[in-house]
Amino acid sequence: MKTIITFLLMVALFLVCQSPSYSQKSQKKGQSSPANPFADQVKEHFKNWDKNNDGKINEAESNLTITNKSVSGDQAAAILGMHYLFIKSGNPKEFTKEEILNRGSWKPTGNSGEFKGSDLLGAFASYSDKLKNINRKLFIGEPSPIGMHQGMLGDCYLISTIGALAKISPNKIKEMVKEKSEGSYDVHFADKNFVTVNKLTDTEMIAGASTDGQGCWLRVMESAFGKRKAMNSGNKTKGTKVGSANKADYDFAVGHGGTQEEVINALTGHQPITLKLSKDLKQLVAIFGEAGKKITLASIYANKQVPPGFDTGHGYAILGYDKKTNKVKVWNPHGNEFNPIGPEGMKNGFIVKKGVMDVSVDDFAKVFDLVVYEKK
Questions:
Q1: Do the beta carbons of residue 137 and residue 215 sit within 8 Å?
Q2: In the structure, what pLDDT confidence band is assigned to residue 130 with cuts at 50, 70 and 90?
Q3: pLDDT tens digit string along 183-221?
């Protein structure tokens, strides 16, 4: 069968990746609803969050709170819960205290004494737990995609590419990110320019990507790329109405979407090549064979019908290829787990451990739409 893979030298898939969803399990608490520390934080701090005193919180006002060094603990988790609300709600982009409390509440399930928490409560609980495990050391061991997790920002295009680089050349990342004596960081990009990231607040630390025990290097790189992106665009984040641009704008610049191609160029200085997949696979196998030497990535169009366990409108990294099994090792930057109900395959999906799944080349070509790789 003849190889049919179209080269797209100028066309890149702009990815605005979905943040993870959260759920709060049902709890049985007699006849009264369970404790709600999220609501406690909203009641205590809403007045301080409402910078213009109009009785509502908008995205720009919560941005200002995120960069406030005095905000920590459950208040930090609560303000990030607000950002989760902004991301998931679409419109409106502002909420009164009563609207927030209603969305972040326990609701009776209909079973006697049983209550179910909203996904906003689930997000708050997740951020609160994450705060307890913050480690501000820059590097602990070697950077690796195994243990990396995309956070609440829609930047799979960035995290997937950094993960591929961490697999190929962890020392390259250590060379890029340098800690300064006062707690800030310089992140050096391939064009010889560098971005300084100030010491991150508790809220900033848990807002974005994380690693399992590898240090905070990924969160620093994420913030640095956002700053670079915001500076290059010459614009503040859309919707910033209160005060001037601040560090939170950088996160929202990186979280408003981008391309894997731009990240390859920023990290390596090399040009990316983008391929649109078709049915024949010889050249694709050759590209996969170089995945251990070159950054190799893949993406799926939005709203496509895919097997369970895959995310659409999402970027992935290729970590390797096994000639014997003709399977490619695909990594999801969410770093998620998935167990198919039934045999592995296109019907039920594939086993995913720490974001990694092994997929045959034939099945890969059915699921994915584009492959992007580094031209050295």
A1: yes
A2: confident
A3: 899 999 998 888 999 888 888 888 889 999 999 999 999
Report the first-to-last Cα separation within the chain, whole angstroms. 29
Instruction: For residue range 139-169, list pLDDT tens digits in order.
Output: 999 999 999 999 878 899 999 999 999 999 9
Quick one: tokens of 296?
A: 């190799």
Residue 51 buriedness (CB in 10 A; 0-12 / 13-18 / 19+)? middle
Query: Over the stretch 42-63, which tens digit does the pLDDT of each residue have?
Result: 999 999 999 999 999 988 888 7
* Residue-range definition of the domain harbouring residue 247: 148-262
Task: Clarify whether residues 47 and 97 are in a common domain.
Answer: yes
Q: Are residues 250 and 209 in the same domain?
A: yes
d(CA 160, CA 145): 8
User: Within this chain, do residues 117 and 204 fall inside the same structural domain, yes or no?
Assistant: no
User: What's the CATH number where 68 sits?
Assistant: 1.10.238
Residue 139 lies in a domain: no
Residues 252 and 334 in one domain: no
Residue 288 within any structural domain of the chain: yes
Is 141 contained in some domain? no
State the DSSP string of 57-81. EEHHHHHHHHT-TT--HHHHHHHHH
Residue 56 lies in a domain: yes
Within a 10 A sphere around the Cβ of 172, how many other Cβ atoms? 14
Decide: pTM greater than 0.85.
no
Cα–Cα nearest to 161, from 19, 308, 272: 272
